[in-house]
Amino acid sequence: MNPFSKSRRESVGALGEEKLIAAIRRWLGRTSPRAPFGIGDDCAVLAPSRGPQLITVDPVIYPRHFNDHVPPRAVGAKLLRRNLSDLAAMGGRPTAAVLALTLDARVSRRWLEAFYRGLAACARLYRVPIVGGDIAQADGMVGASLTLLGEATGPRTLTRTGARLGDAIYVTGVLGGSLRSGHHYSFTPRLKEGAWLARRPEVRAMMDLSDGLAKDIHALTPPRGVAALEPATLPRRSGANLRAALTEGEDYELVFAVAAQADAAHFERAWRHAFPRTRLTRVGRFVRVGALPATAIDLADYHGYEHLR
Amino acid sequence: MNPFSKSRRESVGALGEEKLIAAIRRWLGRTSPRAPFGIGDDCAVLAPSRGPQLITVDPVIYPRHFNDHVPPRAVGAKLLRRNLSDLAAMGGRPTAAVLALTLDARVSRRWLEAFYRGLAACARLYRVPIVGGDIAQADGMVGASLTLLGEATGPRTLTRTGARLGDAIYVTGVLGGSLRSGHHYSFTPRLKEGAWLARRPEVRAMMDLSDGLAKDIHALTPPRGVAALEPATLPRRSGANLRAALTEGEDYELVFAVAAQADAAHFERAWRHAFPRTRLTRVGRFVRVGALPATAIDLADYHGYEHLR
Questions:
Q1: Tell me: the pLDDT tens digits for A124-183?
Q2: In chain A, at which residue ranges do the beta strands (DSSP E only) sit?
Q3: Mind listing the domains of chain B with CATH numbers?
Q4: Which domain of life does this protein belong to (chains A, B) (predicted)?
Q5: A89, A152, B36 from A56: Cα distances, Å
Q6: CB distance B46–A61 less than 8 Å?
Q7: What is the tens place of the pLDDT at every residue in B131-143?
Q8: What whole-number distance in Å separates Cα of residue A33 and Cα of residue A195?
Q9: CB nearest to B207's CB, from A42, A87, A103
């Protein structure tokens, strides 16, 4: 569905700001708490945190993150899911979200209603109150940016830092073909898996995959190290070749490092017991620069998604 | 300064994402904490809150909130100040901010550097760590949305709800002419005043003025009431007429209700002692619908800034 309306009457501009905000609150339903704990005052008031907090921000922008083939309900859900994936990558769970919308006045009310209803359904599923927002106008623009607050689910928050030379590299799910298959908007953020991994002492560092493994793995790689990925082991989506699995991006899977001295068989058994339906694959290990095995992928041959190009 | 670069070489697109993020961290300097407490991981980790929290989000978008005549440093500062004004309106103080940037690849590096340096200078002044962000590309777009976290400065958070019939209406500063005078980007958010007012029991409700008093006052008006504003009392910026003071918007001043039975002279003396340089004006009171004095402004004759028109 194209976000722009053909008739002025059916546009958000014709509705006007006040009625639009009232409609948004209706579309959000019970995921939108009453002011001052939600939309409707200068700020929203949130309960004190129970411990350290997590915060992340990610957008969806037309036509970069969705096009006319993505149902607007899925666009709203994708916006929240992308941010939930960032929380999952640190072993967190969500507490509240605020939404900044930037719209052309010609955007269709039907499109926007479906967007918000999709966001609300996803917010109910993951119990994320939408506590605030802003609507601004910009010609040609259909975009939204969501800031998600969260908290750790256990005593530890997993970061991208901490992997060491020799550590094994694991990924969840399958890679590549995300845009073609619709995975980029229908994926399940790995919140349960992330929380479980943050409680496993043998897991040293973790992140989520958004720009493709070939690019993202650099952020997890220890100093003086390089990722030795074995091409045969890479879990690929049906129809995705090696290049697609490494570079297409929007996988929203977890990649993490497991200590070299850990009992891998024991760890993998525990995973299968906890997540019998989530594929886990050991795809390689971190080695010293210059010590890349001949069989490993030379990452210099692959580039993930480059923003601002 | 126009945000678009004439030469491809001088554009953010030519710089590329990785170098741009490194440059942004340099421009932000010490307002940008190290990961995982700032930019560079999937989420930023924040210290536990000391009590109830406040959250708000507001954007600056070209050419709606700034044009080529506004120095880019001032645009960056305005983005933070707008959000600080929302915190001030509830008696809060800031704790952390995240920034979502949406840029055309042709935006000039010089423009963006000045934008970030202006934001960083303002963040240092108000001690707001910039803990996270996102950069996305959209054709023709130069915009940023900032989510600001804060906390109450005392036992009470002032909301827009709570004014009663008979309560006096006060405004800080002067109104109107904000765009013409440059006030819209150079204003000082009323954080100190807001915190002081939240501790005064006679103050019942408060908000900040962004779309013009004529429109904004409705949100403060009690049920079955109407604001009786006396035109002669309205504090106007030099050169601003009554209509400008009521409708132009972007005043970023506080408007609040003081209990009818309070000792107004005592309250005003205390204010002058606390804020000898911040003008305070009683501009009217809330009366029952139908009981508007003949001298009062009929707000139906005035409309504030309408978004999405």
A1: 999 999 999 999 999 999 999 999 999 999 999 999 999 999 999 999 999 999 999 999
A2: 44-46, 53-61, 92-103, 130-137, 142-152, 168-172, 203-208, 225-229, 254-258, 280-288
A3: 10-152 (3.30.1330.10), 168-299 (3.90.650.10)
A4: Bacteria
A5: 11, 13, 11
A6: no
A7: 999 999 999 999 9
A8: 27
A9: A42
